From TrEMBL:
Biological processes, Gene Ontology terms: cell division
Lyase in keyword set: no
Transmembrane segments: 75-93
Species for this entry: Blastococcus haudaquaticus
Highest rank taxon of the organism: Bacteria
Region (Disordered): 1-68
Record-given protein name: Cell division protein FtsB
UniProt entry tagged with the keyword Cell cycle: yes
Length: 194
């Protein structure tokens, strides 16, 4: 195996006591015995090749601008949290708004019912008045007091008489019932009477 290593390294490798060392073309480093700061001494090892490089990392120059990603991890997390919060609150907010609309509708119905109740109370107070009841009986039911004159318009003819003394039309009594029925149907249709 050492022969293979020696062949690969060509003339650069030198054998010295079984160890293969390579020449880099540079002068060998001479280590100084300067005092080392206390905080660096603990991290330094005894072998020079194993020491950490104290060089700073190469920073990008001003000619190559650093591109920032369009969407970063925290932005995605924040967007997901906002979306989760919106989805969580959508149902209760919709129920709240529906409840408010229902309360407004019930309040309007309550006001309408209060107005109707007040109207009915006023109507009851009017009907308890005897003069109002008498006037309604005369207008709606055509009631008359004894001795009053009643005028009723029947078929466009004015008939006068006392209460209970109206003359009935004689032609309706003389017609057979089926002809009276046909005549009333013709009158209802608007056609000529036969």
């Amino acid at each position: 195996m050492s022969n293979v290593r020696g062949r690969r390294s060509g003339g650069d490798a030198q054998r010295s006591g079984g160890r293969v060392s390579r020449s880099t073309g540079r002068a060998p480093r001479v280590h100084s015995t300067r005092p080392v700061a206390a905080n660096l001494r603990s991290s330094a090892t005894s072998r020079p090749g194993a020491r950490r490089s104290l060089r700073r990392a190469v920073r990008p120059t001003a000619t190559t601008p650093r591109r920032r990603p369009l969407v970063t991890g925290p932005a995605v997390l924040l967007g997901a949290l906002v979306l989760l919060l919106a989805l969580t609150l959508a149902g209760p907010i919709r129920q709240y708004l529906a409840g408010q609309a229902e309360l407004e509708q019930l309040a309007a119905e309550g006001r309408a019912l209060d107005e109707r109740a007040a109207d009915l109370r006023r109507q009851l107070e009017r009907q308890s008045d005897p003069a109002y009841a008498e006037r309604q009986a005369r207008e709606r039911l055509t009631y008359v007091l004894p001795g009053d004159r009643l005028v009723v318009v029947v078929d466009g003819e004015a008939v006068e008489g006392d209460a209970g003394t109206l003359a009935s039309t004689a032609r309706d009594e003389q017609l057979p019932w089926h002809e009276g029925l046909m005549r009333s149907l013709a009158d209802a249709d608007g056609g000529p009477a036969q």
